[in-house]
Amino acid sequence: MYGFIAGLISGFFGAGGGLILIPFFSKFLKLDAKTSRATAITIVLFLVISSSFFYLKNKAINWDIAAFCAIGGCIGSFIGSKILKKSSSNFLNIIFIIFLIYSGIKML
Amino acid sequence: MENLLFGVIAGMGAALGLGGGTILILLLNFFTDIKQYEIQGINLVFFIPASIIAIYVNYKNKLIDFKIAKKCIFIGIFGSIIGSFLASKIENSHLKRYFGIFLLIIAINGIYTFISQYKNKKNSQNKNISKK
Fold this sequence. Notes:
The structure holds two protein chains of two kinds.
Chain A: H1 2-13, H2 17-28, H3 33-57, H4 63-84, H5 89-107
Chain B: H1 2-15, H2 20-31, H3 36-60, H4 66-89, H5 92-131
Helix pairs in contact in B: 1-2, 1-3, 2-3
């Protein structure tokens, strides 16, 4: 059921499936934080591929911008995984929550 | 060039497990005038290579629970097809607003998790004291 909801969200918003799956894994399936994140990202990859077909069909993908973002993303995820070892996850979570509240309100 | 920078920031977010896709969508929303639906499409393309790198590292570290992953992928694909279909039918400004609501829900859940973690810590500390 959670898989279905995660899929629905990730197709609808093009993101966010992982944000649904991670708390579910850690709360109900009692997976540890790292396993939850790793499993969630694996699932989301497949969901993203399947919704990409739809966006492709609707010609909703701007390849010029997307290519740059994708290259940047690879560099960023490499740097991020290095930082992850050094920083406290509580601190990161607090910043992220503040960021979410601010931008959530701004989007309304 | 700035798109590259957005990608770097979002990629860092993704690697830290904060929801890189969400970050990219917000950055593009605030700093460009691309439509929400188109932004979501860009985000999908961004996510595939970035996540493959992360999955490869996680796979090597044996952090992925494939049993659970298989079940969720199978059911989740149905969800994502329905979700993508709905997104293509909805007006741009509405889609943006729904995304805002979704972010607030995630934030509230995050705060709730924090409070319960804090309570658990306190409880276990109290238990330790009473044992002594």
